[in-house]
C-alpha cells in the first residue's frame, strides 16, 4: 500500500512533465524541422544562410548532454518558473533537450518523401505554405508520429535523469528512496513503471502510425 502511495503521484508527475514538454517540443520543433528541409538549396524555399544557422543551432543543442543542459539553463528556468527544482522546473530543460532532437527527426521524415510529390505541387503553382501544410506534412504523417513516439520515450528517460536535481517524477523517487535510502523495492518498482510507460507509448505510437500509413 505504501509503495503504491509513493508510485502514483510520482508517475503522475512524470506524465505531467512529459505531456507539457512534448507539447512545446512539437510546437517549436516541427516548424524548425520543416525549415531545415524547405530552406535547402534544391527545395521550395532555398536559403543557405538560414539553413546553415538553423543546422548549427540544432547540432549544438543535440551535442549538450542532458545533465549539463539542466545546469546550464538554471538561470532561465528560475526566470520562467521561479525555481530551479521541482516538476515545473524540470520541464524547461526537457523542452530544450527535445526540440533539436525532434527537429532532426522531422527533417529525416520529410526528406524521405518522394521528390516527385513536392515537385508536382510546386509545378502546379501551389504556394510553399500550402505545399508544407497539404502535401509534405500529411504525406509524412506516419513517420512524424513515429518520430513523436521516439521523442516521448527519450523524454521519459530525460525526466528520470531530472531526479538528480530534485525534478520530481519516478526518477526522483528512485533516487531519493531507492538509492539514497537503499529501498530496493521502490527502486525496482520505479524502473518497472518506467518500462511499462515506454512499452505503452511505443505500442500506441506504432498503432497510430500504421493507421495513418494505411490511409
Automatic annotation (TrEMBL):
Keywords: Cell membrane, Membrane, Transmembrane, Transmembrane helix, Transport. It is a multi-pass membrane protein. One of its GO terms (biological process) is D-methionine transmembrane transport. The chain crosses the membrane at residues 15-37, 49-73, 79-103, 144-166, 186-205. It comes from the Bacteria. It is found in: Cell membrane. GO terms for cellular component: plasma membrane. Pfam families: BPD_transp_1 (PF00528). Residues 11-205 form the ABC transmembrane type-1 domain. Its main location: membrane. Belongs to the binding-protein-dependent transport system permease family. CysTW subfamily. This is ABC transporter permease.
Amino acid at each position: 500500500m505504501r509503495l503504491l502511495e509513493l508510485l502514483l503521484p510520482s508517475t503522475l508527475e512524470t506524465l505531467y512533465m512529459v505531456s507539457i514538454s512534448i507539447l512545446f517540443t512539437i510546437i517549436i520543433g516541427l516548424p524548425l524541422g520543416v525549415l531545415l528541409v524547405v530552406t535547402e538549396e534544391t527545395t521550395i524555399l532555398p536559403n543557405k544562410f538560414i539553413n546553415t544557422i538553423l543546422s548549427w543551432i540544432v547540432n549544438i543543442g543535440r551535442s549538450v548532454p542532458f545533465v549539463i543542459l539542466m545546469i546550464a539553463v538554471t538561470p532561465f528556468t528560475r526566470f520562467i518558473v521561479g525555481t530551479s527544482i521541482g516538476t515545473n522546473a524540470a520541464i524547461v530543460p526537457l523542452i530544450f533537450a527535445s526540440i533539436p532532437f525532434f527537429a532532426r527527426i522531422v527533417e529525416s521524415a520529410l526528406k524521405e518523401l518522394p521528390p516527385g510529390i513536392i515537385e508536382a505541387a510546386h509545378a502546379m503553382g501551389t504556394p510553399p505554405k500550402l505545399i508544407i501544410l497539404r502535401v509534405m506534412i500529411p504525406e509524412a504523417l506516419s513517420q512524424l508520429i513515429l518520430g513523436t513516439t521516439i521523442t516521448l520515450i527519450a523524454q521519459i528517460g530525460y525526466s528520470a535523469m531530472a531526479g538528480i536535481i530534485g525534478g520530481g517524477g519516478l526518477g526522483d523517487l528512485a533516487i531519493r528512496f531507492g538509492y539514497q535510502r537503499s529501498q530496493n523495492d521502490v527502486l525496482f518498482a520505479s524502473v518497472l513503471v518506467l518500462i511499462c510507460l515506454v512499452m505503452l507509448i511505443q505500442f500506441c505510437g506504432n498503432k497510430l502510425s500504421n493507421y495513418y500509413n494505411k490511409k
